[in-house]
Amino acid sequence: xxxxxDEYIKNAAVASAVAxxxxxxxxxxxxxxxxxxxxDNADYEKALEVYSGWKNVSEEEKEKLADAxxxxxxxxxxxxxxGTMELEQAMEIYETIDQMNMDELSGDEIVAYSRxxxxxxxxxxxxxxxxxxDGGEYLEAISCFRQVSELDCNYASAVRRAKAAxxxxxxxxLETARGYADEGNxxxxxxxxxxxxxxxxxxxxxxxxxxxLHKQEALATAAALADGEEYTEALAALDTYKETYDAGDxxxxxxxxxxxxxxxxxxxxxxxxxxxxxxxxxxADVLEKAxxxxxxPEFDETIARLxxxxxxxxxxxxxxxxxxxxxxxxxxxxxxxxxxxYIGENAYELAATAGDGWSSDSLGSVEFKLGRRYTNLSGxxxxxxxxxxxxxxxxxxxDGTELYSGRFTxxxxxxxxxxxxxxxxxxKIYCSEIDGDGxxxxxxxxxxxxx
Length: 451
Hints:
56% of the residues lie in helices and 18% in strands. By secondary structure, it is an alpha+beta fold. The strands form three sheets. Strands 1, 3, 6, 7, 9, 12 and 14 form a seven-stranded antiparallel beta sheet that branches. Strands 2-8-13-10-11 form a five-stranded antiparallel beta sheet, with no helix packed on it. A two-stranded antiparallel ribbon has the order 4-5. β4 (333-335) and β5 (341-343) form a beta hairpin. α4 runs antiparallel to α5, α4 packs parallel to α6 and α5 runs antiparallel to α6 (106-134).
């Protein structure tokens, strides 16, 4: 709701600025000028007197006066917010214009009054926040400062003071908890820090303090295991600590990284080699398997990056139906009739089997939902070397409209396609017919979609 009000206010300000420009160019007539001059000289009674005695006002004059008063409303609201105008003067301007009862300004008056009142309340919150901060009531200070409006010239200061109050609150809580710990009363320290954490958004400082009390034992245990070259057990000891206490401590991380650095580096380099060849899924698979041996943040970060870089494959689409359509396993390859190899990174097989006189042809097909989110489909269609001497027709349709048709035989080379699929909701790839006996297996490789 607040965002809608702010947007309305901004639009009103723009409209006012445009109106002001128009007034400056055209002039406003003697009555408008008199009322405007009185308003600018803070003689509001005179302004109302001239306005109330103004008879037979033309529509053009009404519009000019409305534009002039709209500008004064904006000046009052903006000036009070910026700290260049006192509340009393801003309200006098508003009340004077309100008494004019101009229908053209009803919306502008509401906006101006709302802005003035918002800043007025904001100033009170700012003052209350300063008082609470000086009195050591840090949570109260934070609450007050966060209620200061962006329309208030004190907003930037309030943001800084809220952060300062939060830091003072954290420092005071840490000092109290450390006092408990110095007495050996760790449970009270933990309890106090957990309770204090309920009052702020970022509890990481308190969590780190709790972790520090447990860190020494975990590090000593891991070091002893590592001295005996029991690295897996050392990593397990640190993992147990991290899982139990949600460790984010630098020293823990450095110890952990020291035991796994060589392994992590090797797997990252292997994944990068695949990425450079455009094998994003294979690269991610290498890291997923490595995660089964070692938990390293670099793995998750790289996997996330690979997912973001990877183009949209057919497997990423919502599948509506399929028949005799399979994805080639990631660690397998397919070879076409001309001995060209297609890796399993982004490869599929679409099969078709000719009838034997007793049964009808069995034709593969797959249909996906595009949702009108893509513009182009590209890829390669080839004949698998395991196919017989058949001929098959492959068709691609978008919402039932034929976009591509190609005939493939045992001697066909792989065909690269690029199809415009924008505005289509569904995509269907299928074999429409087959000639000959036996089966034909069509390789669909590197099929990607462009948004």
